[in-house]
Amino acid sequence: MGTLFDRLSPTTSISSISPIVRDEIEAQLAEFKAEEARIQAEAERTEKAIA
Whole-model pTM? Predict the structure, then answer.
């Protein structure tokens, strides 16, 4: 099934999406950004441990 992002075309305008779906997309984006920050922090810790 995939995420909402998988079901949207790259040209989908955020204003053309219903507010409920937009809220869900924004929540998923926040989760992805938080996960990205965790991964980056882990990578930095690993680099420091190796150095």
Answer: 0.57
